[in-house]
Amino acid sequence: MDTIAAISTALGNGGIGIIRMSGDKCFDILDKIFVPKNKSKKIEGYKMKYGNIISPENKEIIDEVLVSYFFNPKSYTTEDMCEINSHGGTVVTKKILELCIENGARLAEPGEFSKRAFLNGRIDLSQAEAVIDLINAKTNKEAKESVKQLTGALANNINNIKKQLMDIMVNIEASIDYPEYDVEEVTNLTALQILADVNNKLINLENTFDNGKIIKQGIKVAIIGRPNAGKSSLLNLMLREERALVTEIEGTTRDSIEEYINIDGIPIKIIDTAGIRQTSDVIEKLGIDKAKNIAEDADLVIAIFDATKELEKEDEEILSLIKNKKNIILLNKIDKDKNILKENEIIKKQKYIEISAKENIGIDNLYKEISNLFNLGEIEADDSLLITNIRHKELIKNSRNNILQAIEAINSGMPIDIIQINIKDAWDSLGEITGETVSENIINEIFSKFCLGK
Ligand code: GDP
């Protein structure tokens, strides 16, 4: 395989930058561009050497660096690898990368180091996916889940289930190969027991996705309300709190900035903040349909009303809009004297929280309510394995469908080779999680989401 090189640290100015190489030629390339201070000493793995990166043509010193050496198979990719620790900043790191490439390396594709770790069998696909999740984690809880998956918790779980299915398949194979022993009935009985057990395990795993999704994607919250109700004030207040996180998301929504706050370790994503902030009135300027879309897309709608105003027709529309959603109703501006809205008959029938976005009153009650609505405290405390990846969830579901078909096939006396097909399909779906049976396209798609140098 080619020797690949990339800058592994984030671009920009920083204390150090790391340029990574992996492949057969990496030490030869290093020989040409790196002059260690202590030339006499033999290079050892897992140690660092101090010296200069030079341009081989004119011997010009590019930077003073530390180089670490990793010998195959004990490296991230299982190949020979080195990491050049240079000074940070784009110019120096780019120059060193260029030298690596001019001397025989190829620029690594995004995620190619991790892809090699997977293709060379050091990690399974779910572990590789955990690497990217860990890098992208927005909260401690998300990072913790990713680390769990990175250490192989999901892979172990899946492999154990796969082994159960394999046992059935071996038995079936035997009864097909040796029909004279007439073991089919026994095989079917054991198969039914194992399949029921596998089905339960898969249901449990699949059910963890609700919480897993919340941990990974967070809760999408839309704030809606009439002009001047206090949407921006509330949003700014929430974002000003120390638990606010602002994340620039790359990928499909490259041009938008998503803002998160963190409640009980769970990212709370405020939807379309930019839109809401530019437009003082979602209902009026964007129209009720747009508000509907925003609300529909949200996991939670916060409807904010001016507590000092009468309930108007638009307010009623907002109330009917949120009726079938998880929602929180806020009566804002309670610092003012004219607190009349709560006397309204319609409002009286609602559950609401009184706040002042301006004076920072009642916001903790809002956070508490969000936490209650989504059982966030429980998720935070839960230490069991969670499915956080939709790809994994879908595959578990596919697998379970095949298990159910196999159970049905046995119960209706179908030929054993038909049952075998269902079980094999169930096994294959699980194999796609760990990467044993996954197609090249999917592998490429997964690794293309990685950052450069990882
Ligand atoms: P939006 O149009 O819904 O985004 O409302 P804004 O957040 O821009 O608020 C409209 C006006 O109400 C601004 O002048 C705010 O200062 C004021 N305001 C917002 N929240 C409060 C509050 O809790 N108390 C008081 N007294 N004024 C508020």
Itemize the secondary structure elements and their pairings.
Blueprint: E1 4-7, E2 16-22, H1 26-33, E3 34-36, E4 48-54, E5 61-70, E6 81-87, H2 90-102, E7 106-107, H3 112-119, H4 125-136, H5 140-150, H6 153-177, H7 184-207, H8 209-217, E8 219-224, H9 231-240, E9 244-248, E10 257-263, E11 266-270, H10 273-278, H11 282-285, H12 287-297, E12 300-306, H13 313-322, E13 327-332, H14 345-348, E14 352-354, H15 363-373, H16 376-381, H17 390-411, H18 416-434, H19 440-448
Parallel strand pairs: 1-7, 8-11, 8-12, 12-13, 13-14
Antiparallel strand pairs: 1-2, 2-6, 3-4, 4-5, 5-6, 9-10, 10-11
Helix pairs in contact: 4-5, 6-7, 6-18, 7-17, 17-18
The protein binds guanosine-5'-diphosphate.
Residues 225, 227-233, 280, 332-333, 335-336, 356-358 line the site of guanosine-5'-diphosphate (GDP).
Summary of the model, kept short:
The protein contains 19 helices and 14 strands. With 454 residues, it is an alpha/beta fold. It folds into three domains: 4-108, 2-Layer Sandwich (Gyrase A, domain 2), CATH 3.30.1360.120; 128-208 and 386-447, Four Helix Bundle (Hemerythrin (Met), subunit A); 218-378, Rossmann fold.
